[in-house]
Design a protein that fits this description.
41% of the residues lie in helices and 19% in strands. The chain is α/β, with parallel strands linked by helices. It has one domain: Rossmann fold (3-Layer(aba) Sandwich). Strand 3, helix 3 and strand 4 form a beta-alpha-beta unit. Helix 1 runs parallel beside helix 3 and helix 4 runs parallel beside helix 5.
């Protein structure tokens, strides 16, 4: 097992599908004080909307369909994103669905906390662990990797 420490000030990626952007913005405004204690990242359009609503700078990636989901996934794999809040729309097909699946998969692979709905995001943001250093235990995938490198 590989352990990695994440600081008390988390690097949080915020993502929302079109039909969920309003809900994410409302959630972020309601939690503005809590989110201000962390560094925020977002995909393109969502990031602009969050900047306007929160009146705070957001580090922005490309729009999700243009590669933003993949950029966030890469940041997760590199240990540069600590938490993922992704309000995805389960009722509408997305043209970049493989990217979305890959992003969610990386959240599990690297054992980062992530929320896909408002209730889970509320629980996550109100956890005392969000405001203190935390040691993430990253599963050891070496046996899996060596099995397929033959």
């Amino acid at each position: 097992m590989l352990n990695r420490k994440i600081a008390a000030r988390k690097r949080i990626a915020l993502v929302a599908h079109d039909n969920k952007k309003k809900e994410l913005i409302e959630w972020a405004v309601y939690n503005k004080a809590a989110l201000a204690k962390h560094r925020l990242y977002a995909t393109g359009t969502t990031g602009k909307m969050l900047e306007d609503a929160l009146d705070t700078p957001i580090s922005r990636f490309l729009s999700g369909p243009m590669g933003g989901d993949q950029q966030i996934g890469a940041q997760i794999a590199e240990g540069k994103i600590d938490v993922l809040i992704f309000f995805w729309d389960p009722m509408e097909a997305q043209p970049h669905d493989p990217d979305i699946k890959a992003l969610l998969r990386l959240g599990v692979v690297w054992n980062i906390p992530f929320a896909c709905d408002r209730a889970t995001a509320d629980f996550l943001l109100t956890s005392p662990l969000m405001y203190q250093e935390y040691e993430v235990i990253v599963p050891d995938y070496n046996a899996y990797l060596t099995r397929y490198q033959k």
